[in-house]
Amino acid sequence: MTVRRLSVYFRCLAHLEEDGVKTISSQELAARFHLNSAQVRKDLAYFGEFGIRGIGYDTAVLRAEIQRILGLDREWRVVLVGFGNLGSALFHYRGFARQGFRIAAIVDDDAAKIGRSVNGLVIEALAELPRVVKSQAIQIGVVAVPAEAAQGVADRLIAAGVRAILNFAPSRVKVPKDVRLQNVDLSIELENLSFHLGQGAR
Amino acid sequence: MTVRRLSVYFRCLAHLEEDGVKTISSQELAARFHLNSAQVRKDLAYFGEFGIRGIGYDTAVLRAEIQRILGLDREWRVVLVGFGNLGSALFHYRGFARQGFRIAAIVDDDAAKIGRSVNGLVIEALAELPRVVKSQAIQIGVVAVPAEAAQGVADRLIAAGVRAILNFAPSRVKVPKDVRLQNVDLSIELENLSFHLGQGAR
DNA sequence: TAGATTGTTAATCGATTAACAATC
DNA sequence: TAGATTGTTAATCGATTAACAATC
Predict the structure, then answer these.
(1) Chain B contacts of A163, Cβ < 8 Å?
(2) pTM for the complete prediction?
(3) How many CB atoms lie within 10 A of CB B68?
């Protein structure tokens, strides 16, 4: 939960820095997100002493610290598996690059797509995964295939040596404990929205 | 938080029902998600008495109850704003229809796209939003436009009369209190993944 | 020094879990 | 009736908030 809040602080600080704001207090930061100032201080203090008593936090310093804590100061090398609508959307999504996620390879199992070049990157065959992961020093596999194919793709990614899987397929996949799995599950968001809309109607 | 867990129970129960499992205990259900059985019972009891003492829960009955609670037994009418990569991916995403989200209209401000027909649905001009929302009885607006355009689109959707906004743009938008806003923020998921991968490396 | 704001300890609150009477 | 499992109350735990000494 703290990590999610750190993400939020980070984006806010980046904006403040752009706007030329030099320092900010936990009070001001908290007000922007309807949080308690003690919570903001505690979240930050957990990772170190970044503030100056009587002054607040140096915007640029704190932004850089959070960036480092979140691992946003380094690049992660990613293979995108599946170049259908979703895969294509993710490939063109700017946010990926902005967060340091560099799509270093694309694979698909559709013969019609293999060999096609997008932005200078050639789509490779799914069977080439082990070679691609190794030669491109890839750490993360992004699963953008239909639900039925997700587990199989995840297994192949892990066998090929990725350390983490970002799963966009609308299905849960199982991974060993030493592999980090992050699901981006649209269904849960839709159900959440549906629930709250339904409540409002009553 | 309970709603998120209900979503998970729902999917599990749907599977169990397909597999012909007639009843399930809170114990068994909890075991599947590494939860406490008391928590499962409490989550369910919050909405009514669905279980049978000494037996457990009737899979089909509980599935139907949760479906109703989550509002998944009815249809929500949706307008998709933006038919770029992301919009197109969302349009073809089966999960939408599966959860009862019926894309009843598509709008875009790109003249090259307006008038194009996808699966029998004609892409309309953004300016037509008020008419489209009214004539199609639309309740939810899905924002799939670039970050810079998101707030403007949200404002127009609200003015046109939608009750909820599902925002996929990588930017926070502000909405009045009576409009339900659900952000699907990929950045936070990426930062979460990045953080945990970074920790593992230390 | 006076005013402000941090980092942190103690108090509070809410959510999770254990325990058990009710009951199938 | 005996065994099992619910719904719910009471106990525990963790996260949030208030308060304040430290210090810029």
Answers:
(1) 197, 200
(2) 0.86
(3) 13
